[in-house]
Design goal:
This protein is α/β, with parallel strands linked by helices and 196 residues long. It has two domains: 48 residues, RecR Domain 1 (Helicase, Ruva Protein, domain 3); 134 residues, 3-Layer(aba) Sandwich (Dna Topoisomerase Vi A Subunit, Chain: A, domain 2). Helices cover 44% and strands 14% of the residues. The chain contains eight helices and seven strands. Strands 4-3-5-6-7 form a five-stranded mixed β-sheet. Helix 5 links the parallel strand 3 and strand 4. Helix 1 crosses helix 2 and helix 5 packs across helix 8. It is elongated, with a radius of gyration of 20 Å.
């Protein structure tokens, strides 16, 4: 006897972050009522994103082509690098249109309670980039305990390289997540960054 396809779809959708069983059920039944083409396009988009997206060899952001469009843009200031924890944080800053430097994505933050240390982040790649001629590193991690610990650690390891280290200003809610902040708040926080 085969597994119930509707039940399986609901279980798989419920595994997504922010999707509970009720929402998963609504989504599953929506897909069942939708035209076949819509379901096929969704399935193809999922397969395609898993097959084509990889890390940019320079900034560690998610991209289809490496180096990514941001790293390839000659109009961006390569002497200024904004380091973020996750790709959604990069996109949140980009939406403001106020930052014209380059980025580096750590793919996490220091969290000893969760067993995440410096070796679990994309720090080696960042240090290599900094040695190649960066003047300023802007630390744009979320203003929560893990984000602050990561910022302090970065300042400690980067300062000896002679690179100016600054931190985005508060204005972002303490304990909040950068990816959910509005564009004006992020832009003001970048403008009012402070030395560390």
């Amino acid at each position: 006897m085969s597994a119930d396809p509707i039940g399986r779809l609901i279980r798989e959708l419920a595994r997504l972050p922010g999707i509970g069983e009720k929402t998963a059920s609504r989504l599953a039944f929506h897909l069942l009522r939708a035209p076949d083409s819509q379901s096929r396009e969704l399935a193809q988009a999922l397969v395609e994103v898993k097959e084509k997206i990889r890390l940019c060899e320079v900034c560690m952001n998610l991209t289809e082509a490496s180096p990514c469009a941001l790293c390839s843009d000659g109009r961006r200031d390569g002497r200024m690098v904004c380091v973020v924890a996750h790709p959604p944080d990069l996109y949140a800053i980009e939406r403001t249109g106020g930052f014209r430097g380059r980025y580096h994505v750590l793919h996490g933050v220091l969290s000893p309670l969760d067993g995440i240390g410096p070796d679990d982040l994309r720090l080696k790649e960042l240090l290599t980039r900094l040695a190649a001629g960066v003047d300023e590193l802007i630390v744009a991690t979320s203003p929560n305990v893990e984000g602050e610990a990561t910022a302090l650690y970065l300042a400690k390891v980067v300062r000896p390289l002679g690179v100016k280290v600054s931190r985005i200003a508060s204005g972002l809610a303490v304990g909040g997540e950068l990816e959910y902040a509005d564009g004006v708040t992020i832009a003001k926080a970048l403008e009012a960054r402070r030395p560390m």
